[in-house]
Structures are given as C-alpha cells and as structure tokens.
Amino acid sequence: MPRPTTALLLCTALLFTACTTTKQTQPPPSPTPNPTGSLCERVQPVIAGKWKAEPALPRTAVPLTTSCNLVDLGDKYHRVRVSVSVVPVSAAEAIRMRTEFERDPSDGKEYAQAVFGPDSWSHRPKFAESALGFRSSGRLILMRQEERFLDDYAQLESIARSINALPGGIRPEPAVVEQPDCALGTGAAAQVLGTKVTMQRGGTAGTASFCGWGSSQATIVLHAGKSGSEPAQRFGSDVHRDAVDVGDGGHLSKPGLLEFRVGTTFVQIFGPTTKGLVELGRVMAPVYRG
Length: 290
Description:
The protein is α+β, with helices and mostly antiparallel strands. It folds into two domains: 39-164, 3-Layer(aba) Sandwich (Protein Transport Mog1p, Chain A), CATH 3.40.1000; 180-288, Protein Transport Mog1p, Chain A (3-Layer(aba) Sandwich). It contains eight helices and 14 strands. The strands form two sheets. It has a seven-stranded antiparallel β-sheet, sandwiched between helices. The longest helix has 22 residues, at 4-25. It is globular and about 50 Å long. Residues 1-25 have low confidence and may be disordered.
C-alpha cells in the first residue's frame, strides 16, 4: 500500500495532467458582441477582418437616422456607413421606400430586392459603391460602401447577417433626444417640414457637430465644423448658388441646401426643400458665434 505522501503526489500529478490536457483541447473563445454603444461598436467585434467603429454625420434619410462608420484598418479608403432609423419602420413602409428607389432615375442606379425579403433592397453598380437596405428589430438599416469603387456587396450582406444576429437585437430608442443647441431650431425646422418635429437628434462626429429634425415624411440635417472638417471640405461645391443673408455670408442651392459661414465655422443645412431653410439658418447661426 503506497504511503500517504506518495499517494498525494500521485493524485496531484494526475490532476495537473488532466487540467493541462483539458486546457490544450479547449477551442478559442468566440468573439463577443459589444452590448453597448453604436450599432458599429456593437457589431465590430464579430465581423470578419479588423475594423474600427467611428461616429458619422447623419444624412437626410427618411425617417431620421443615426449613423456610424466601420473603418477597415487594413485599407484607410475602405469604410462602410451604417445608419439606423430612430423609430421603427413597418414592412409596408420599407417596401414603399424600395419602390421609390427603384423609380428614381438619378445617377442611373439600379435597385433590386435583397436576400432579406421584400422589405429589403440592394444596389450593386459596376463602378460605384454598393448599398443595402433592410429591417432588423423593426428598424430600418441602411448600409453603404464609402470611398471605394468596388463591388463589395457580399461584405455588406455578411455584416447585415451579423447585425441580425446581435443578442437582444437593436434596442428601442426615444424618437426625440434633445440637444440644447439643436432644440433652438426645432420651431424653424417644423416650418421647413410643414408639420411638427417628431424625431430629433444632435451630437458630434469627429471634428464636426450635427443636428437632425424629422417627421414621418421628411428629414433635415445640419452639419457644422471648422477648417478641415467634413462640412468645411464640402462647403461651396455646388456651383448653382444664390447669395443669402445668413451668418457672415451664405448661399442657397437647389434642391434643399443652405450653406453659410459664422466666423471660422462652416455650416450646411440639408432639407427636403429650400423653403424655410434661410430662417432656420438664421435661428441656428448664433450657436456657432462663440
């Protein structure tokens, strides 16, 4: 019969070997989605490749959306814009949007139903950015390749599947999130929309700030930033301009673009029409005077 000390050493050695063997055969842990943050921050850990999530300026999509970018760390010119509606969108509404896109002859774009059902659509041009629209957790998701003229539609579809598989889906948000500076323009924005503002957002994206006001039928977005920012780089790119008295000098372009400068800040307001944009610009100009 082995001595107690010998038996203890033998058991310890066997236990160590078993633990070591188990540790060696365990598969590597699967990436875990980020439970908080923007949609890009949540999905970034589980998509193929190495990506960085960044905030992005919103566009005039209807309904109002919040946006972010997935930036490819292996290619600085490769990024995917992801926008999510701040309110739910029904399947019927999404189908109507797809139909309107299909009827739009601008830029020769061709849209088709995507693999996610009749309330989804894809844009797969030969020499322009791919795009994808679909619903997830009842919210409208718009995705687009940016700054890269390659057909990477398969990648968009893969990211979309990852979004659909996020634990807990896309969490509900209030339609109106007031930001004090943006709230100053709510009354004037309602005049542009022709109805009450039912959606609102505001914040920053990189070196620029933004405001967004929306109804069920239209959206207005304001972008502002100093030299080097995205609004400053785009400022004055429309050659068809009419001078207007806003800030330290502005101009009105068609359709629905007001640009003006306040000191060293460049401001752009995009709306469904030019009507009322000058008044909105005058209300918002003092925000950037300081």
